[in-house]
Amino acid sequence: MTGVELALLGGSLRPGSVSERVLRACADLAADRGARCTVLTAADLDLPLYQPGATHRRPAAAELLAAVRRADGLIVVTPTYHGGMSGLLKNALDHLEDLASDRPAYLDGKVVGSVAVGWSEHGAATAVAALRTTVTSLRGWVTPMAVGVNSIELAALEDVDAGIRADARLMRRLTILVGQVTDFAGRGSAARLVPSA
């Protein structure tokens, strides 16, 4: 698959976190499928709180919006905080309100895969549900596959990246999710098929 542009958003403020490493594993899987990936992590998403109607945005906000506009699809990975997504990621998604006047608006026609990383599968599942709700509110097309990652064992490893690659069940689920994002995005933007409301 060639020509697919993806934006991958990571919601952890901690460099090298399990969540960021899962994000990078998704980027590697997508690149293996021929996708061009823009990976945005804490340094890129550490934005001031979203303020509707503000006339000036920081360059980082403009870069986020540009990456999302270019993207045929997105993969969003968040750490789980009290059953939901991180404030960093929620704030970045709130900044997508600035896409309201685009045609198509928001994430309309873009496929979005959701991944949450937490100390339990239950917590990760509730964060995935929150992500999917927010993405749907932004008119994104959520993938059937979403992934909740129990990070308690991964976080204890000296080489987290190797631990992710060695976890056959996790890699199978991430591969399915990335495949759904790249395959749907590769069929052409649904925005060209379905008019924006």
| Helix run count | 7
Beta-strand fraction estimate: 15-25%
CATH secondary-structure class: Alpha Beta
**Counted beta strands:** 6
Mean pLDDT: 93
Taken from the alpha-carbon principal axes, the silhouette is: globular
Q: Could you list the spans in which at least 5 consecutive residues all have pLDDT below 50?
A: 189-195
The CATH architecture assignment turns out to be: 3-Layer(aba) Sandwich
Order of helices and strands: EHEHHEHEHEEHH
Specify the biggest β-sheet: 6 strands, parallel
Percentage of residues assigned to helices? 40-55%
CATH topology grouping: Rossmann fold
Termini separation: 30 Å
Pfam family, one: FMN_red
Domain NADPH-dependent FMN reductase-like: 6-149
Organism: Micromonospora sagamiensis
InterPro entries: Flavoprotein-like_sf, FMN_Rdtase-like_dom, NAD(P)H-dep_reductase
Question: How does this model look, in words?
Answer:
This protein has 197 residues and is an alpha/beta fold. It has a single domain, classed as 3-Layer(aba) Sandwich (Rossmann fold), CATH 3.40.50. The protein has helices spanning 18-32, 42-45, 59-70, 87-94, 121-137, 160-166, 168-186, and strands at residues 5-10, 36-40, 73-79, 111-118, 141-142, 147-150. Strands 1, 2, 3, 4, 5 and 6 form a six-stranded parallel β-sheet that branches. α1 (18-32) packs across α6. The longest helix is centred in the last third of the chain and has 19 residues, at 168-186. The chain is globular and about 45 Å long. It starts with a strand and ends in an 11-residue tail after the last helix. Residues 189-195 have low confidence and may be disordered.
